[in-house]
Amino acid sequence: MSIRLSAITRGKVLILLLAIAAVAFPLIHDNDADIDSAANAAAYATLALGLNIVVGFAGLLDLGYAAFFAIGAYAYGILTSFQVMPHWSSFWGPFDWLDLVQRMPQPGGDVVHFTVSFWIMLPVSALIAAFFGILFGAPTLRLRGDYLAIVTLGFGEIVPIVVRNTDSLTNGAAGLNGIQAPSLFGFNFGVDALPYYYVAIAMVALLIFISVRLRDSRIGRAWMAIREDETAAMAMGVDRTRTKLLAFAIGAAFAGATGTFYVAKLQTATPEMFGFPVSVMILVMVVLGGMGSVWGVVLGAAILQLLQSWWLPDLSSWLHILGNGLNIIWLQQVDLTHAIELIFGLILVLMMLYRREGLIPATRKEPELDVMQQHAQVERGTAIALSGLHHDGDATLSVRGITVRFGGLTALNAVDLTVPSGGVVAVIGPNGSGKSTLFNTITGLTPADHGTIRFGDDDITCLPPHIILRRGIARTFQNIRLFNTLSVLDNVLIGQHARLRTGPLGAVLRLPAARHEEATARAWATEIVSIFGNRLLPRLTQTVSHLSYANRRRVEISRALASRPKLLLLDEPTAGMNPAETLELAEQIKALHALGVTILLIEHKLDVVTRLADTVIVLDHGEKIAEGPPDEVRRNEQVLRAYLGRGALARATADA
Amino acid sequence: MTAGGLLLQQLINGLSLGAMYALLALGFTLVYGILELINFAHFNVFMVGSFVGMWTLQAMGLKGQTVILTGLPLAGALLMALIVTMVASGALGVAIERLSLRPLRNVRGPAAMITTIGVSYVLFNVVLLGVGADAKNYPNPLPPVTWTLGDAVLRLREALIWIVALLLMLALQMFVQRSRLGKAMRATAQDPEAARMMGVEVDRVVVIAFFAGSALAGAGGLIFGLYYNFTSFIIGFTAGLRAFTAAVLGGIGNVPGAMLGGVIIGLIEAMGSQFIAAAWTDVIIFSILVLVLVFRPAGLLGRVAPNKS
Amino acid sequence: MPEIELLQFRGVNTFYGDLHVLKDVDYTIMRGEIVSLLGGNASGKSTTMKTIMGVVRPANGSVTFDGQRIDTLSTAERVRRGIAPVLEARRLFPRMTVFENLEMGAYTRKRGMEFDQDLDRVYQLFPRVKERRNQLAGTLSGGEQQMVAIGRALMARPRLICMDEPSMGLSPLYVEQVFEIIQQINRQGTTIFMVEQNANMALAIAHRAYVLQTGRVVLSGTAKELRRDKAIQEAYLGEMQVD
């Protein structure tokens, strides 16, 4: 514990030192050109932070990110330059009073000059860009990741084209000029680099803060869940549409604000400033620093700026000296700054080949279990303590005439099934008989061609998966779908996603309500994991991909339980477990049932089925061929035939 | 010119552009079909191919706008240029696969796609630094033979482009449908693991897909130069994006689909720049891409793919 | 039947990332046998198949085929040496014709007389397959697909066929047909290693069997012994036990 504490303290000291260095830099190094470079670096760092939310956190590869930069830039540019000047009318009076516009006398009649303050436009541009983020993001939501890349690339192309071809608004290819510089308390920033530097540093600090807060919240977990396994995330109650759009919107907002800052600093804006090369450069920063790594992308931005402004020019002049010494003409004239984009390309390739996690990886190595924990006596858990699971509501699931077809194959054919509230029903049947399809249909992952599914009093047939989870149905998957790069705790916390309320604002501000909710959620996660005794508890912070097969199953069950389901769907919970582990899990499932959870389970091991289920349903070829108490079903001749085949049955009985 | 004449003329232009986009789209489709990877490097393999074609023509003495060869010698020289361009581009594609993509074959996530962006950028900047930013005059060795069709004019170069593109596409279609390796390629695209279990060496199939796709892109680059009479380091981006749209429109992974998509995109570009405005061509084409992806992601000829999740 | 080993696993361990799948596994399959591999889902059965075919490489231990180490060979080389798979869920190439699927089975071999003979043999075994040879494989029913899948394996003229759950998703009628054909192929001299979840049925046609549980071989013996062993019946044979 003392080691971890000091690690946190060390981190805080490091941040403090960085902040002091950033504030002191221009005072120590009084060189306007360098301060200007540093301000640009900081502006790019804010862009990288924004793209990191989209690409790093949510895993949505956006190749047209500069479009939002452009939108923020032109929003400020148009509202503070002399490009758009409508005729003056009384309509503009109130705006004049608010200092948003000025009345300018002109020979042909007075006109309006927009003079919206930089400080107002900073958040407004963020909002405008966020709006476009949602607009561009919406059609891409259901696309596979690689299509998303090409569509965003296209949007990134379209925005400059539109800018170039709407002369009246943007002055076309010539660009906007005379954009107003910011001023603060009467002090005009003008063209001096220093004030811009401090604004940029403040923006970086703020966006780092926002990024970290979001990452460590309910929102950040949902993004990472989507990134790791979209289907599982939806089944765990994450609203795919909202979650992705939120990432687009927040990422775009960062770029919008940066765009405003950037043109305010340059006081000019042309379409060329926001093309594909800019999108690539920001991507290079993110890739270099580490996708998903907040401090990494800031470092990436800093390194690229150092490379452009200091290292390459220095290296070039050394080469010139070398060229003079050796009398090699081309070496005397070489200018490496022209090769910057070539270097960007090489960075992308080399990082992907040799260090995909970036310079500062987003996931740190968690502490290994110590020897004592590794060799601790396995304590079986009991589920007695889970008071939060108790439900009064009706949890009856009734499936009526469900038919599902994949192309020519009928996976489920008019299946009826009822799980009474408080009951345990087992579905058995050979592999390929439609059991998992049944689960997918109940949980909204696979649409039904016919039939209805009711849960309690509601028809849930066509609801999306996250809504079905909210109604109280949670599931596990046959082939275990955990969020592999996340910890045990985070996996279980994502299970609670739908039960928590914290939004982006609450996550950033960490208001008492949000803090309380998070603490309760963590306590609940720990409580659930304790069902399994000390099997998972000491591994809470471990990445789930390091766990054993049986422990992964246990995490998946914990994750499903975290949503406080009324009905729990378990798809072969004991697959891959040995008899002792199977028995242990069967007891734990029984205990959960005793706590009031209704259970529908797919299981092959008949002893488990007999031990747990009141009713067994047998599927074969997508059809229900038997239903009844376990003992009865085992003697059903049709079941025997489905399982054994007639000839084989005869031989087997003859032998026995 | 009458409206009908304009339409016919733009049809001729559109088919020529379409032939070029189709050749380029085939490379996207072949690689995507097998690896489910959008190969951004393909954009600039096309561009490099265009330069290789120019240099080959120049090396054979075909420079500037003067016609110095006619008849069979000219045909031979052009064929030579085509072969050199295709082999060189194909080799470039294979090198890209071998050096930068094969190590990432089994890596989840966007790593391979990011790598192709990096490679594309490297090619782009190597050419920019090597030959400079100005557009290069492409040799124009073809005699100014034209045919008039009503108001419209069909030039020899357009007829030649159609024939070459058609022959190349037929050859590819034959290869994919009939040959042993072509069948292995289709099998790998449909189920890589099963194909591997049949004894197909997937690495070899991937190499062939990259070679064939890149060679066709190189041919497209040569056609670009002959058609527009210039080439430049920047031509890959726009043409690549349009050709990718063509591949998606036809149904990505589908060889005849890429051809159909290419022709449609070429026609849209020609008609759009005549009857709407050239400045908005990319906006129109790109809107098509988004609409297709949203409403018919399998494209015109593709089947609706079962969800792989 | 001469007692010569055809396929042997010695102390094989495999991993997927951190996950230890096969743990010190030993198998011996004699020439001419039908050997069944039984076990629940996630017990390592499919990993065994993938290890034989060279899709998964063992971290240690050895795999020998016909007396020679094959664990460093490519999948293609293994197919060439005479191992052919019938994959789980059939895995035909859906947008290729039935004939093309059969051709893919003979991918590592030269076209010629032998190819035509093998084709005849497949068509004789499965007249339905011949009828459907120009149809796209994806349009066939499950049972027909399974026949094409077995035919595809035979086209490699294999000495060992590895079958991954040949009964999966088939109706009882087809299951019986498929099992009869497996026996017929075996009688013609091809050794068969068959992963099955349906223990009773597999034991009815197998000579010997291994039982796999959480990646370890926990039982092995002749099919007859295993069928009679009461404890085994209760623990492993049964999704459904015969009283």
Task: Please give a structural write-up.
The complex is a heterotrimer of chains A (656), B (309) and C (243). Chain A has 656 residues and is α/β, with parallel strands linked by helices. Chain A is built from 27 helices and 16 strands. Chain B is mainly alpha-helical. Chain B has 11 helices and 4 strands. In chain B, 72% of the residues lie in helices and 4% in strands. By secondary structure, chain C is an alpha/beta fold. Chain C is built from 10 helices and 12 strands. A 6-stranded mixed β-sheet of chain C has the order 8-9-10-5-11-12, sandwiched between helices. A 4-stranded antiparallel β-sheet of chain C has the order 4-1-6-7, with no helix packed on it. The chains are: A alpha/beta (656), B mainly alpha (309), C alpha/beta (243). Chains in contact: A-B, A-C, B-C.
Give the secondary structure arrangement, pairings included:
The complex is a heterotrimer of chains A (656), B (309) and C (243).
Chain A: H1 2-28, H2 32-57, H3 66-80, H4 93-97, E1 101-104, E2 111-114, H5 118-137, H6 145-165, H7 167-170, E3 176-177, E4 183-184, E5 187-188, H8 193-215, H9 218-228, H10 230-235, H11 240-266, E6 268-269, H12 276-289, H13 294-326, H14 329-333, H15 340-354, H16 371-374, E7 397-406, E8 409-419, E9 424-428, H17 435-442, E10 450-455, E11 458-459, H18 465-471, E12 473-475, H19 488-495, H20 504-509, H21 512-529, H22 549-562, E13 567-571, H23 579-594, E14 598-602, H24 606-612, E15 615-620, E16 623-628, H25 630-635, H26 637-644, H27 646-655
Parallel strand pairs in A: 9-14, 9-15, 12-13, 13-14
Antiparallel strand pairs in A: 1-2, 3-6, 4-5, 7-8, 7-10, 10-11, 15-16
Helix pairs in contact in A: 1-8, 2-8, 2-11, 2-12, 2-13, 3-5, 3-6, 3-11, 5-11, 8-11, 9-11, 9-19, 12-13, 12-15, 19-22, 21-22
Chain B: H1 3-35, H2 41-59, H3 71-101, H4 111-131, E1 136-137, E2 146-149, E3 152-155, H5 156-178, H6 180-190, H7 192-197, H8 202-228, E4 230-231, H9 235-250, H10 255-275, H11 281-295
Antiparallel strand pairs in B: 1-4, 2-3
Helix pairs in contact in B: 1-5, 1-8, 1-9, 1-10, 2-3, 2-4, 2-8, 2-9, 3-8, 5-6, 5-8, 6-8, 9-10, 9-11, 10-11
Chain C: E1 5-13, E2 15-16, E3 19-20, E4 25-30, E5 34-38, H1 45-53, E6 60-65, E7 68-69, H2 75-81, E8 83-86, H3 98-105, H4 113-125, H5 127-131, H6 142-154, E9 160-164, H7 172-187, E10 191-196, H8 199-205, E11 208-213, E12 216-222, H9 223-228, H10 230-235
Parallel strand pairs in C: 5-10, 5-11, 8-9, 9-10
Antiparallel strand pairs in C: 1-4, 1-6, 2-3, 6-7, 11-12
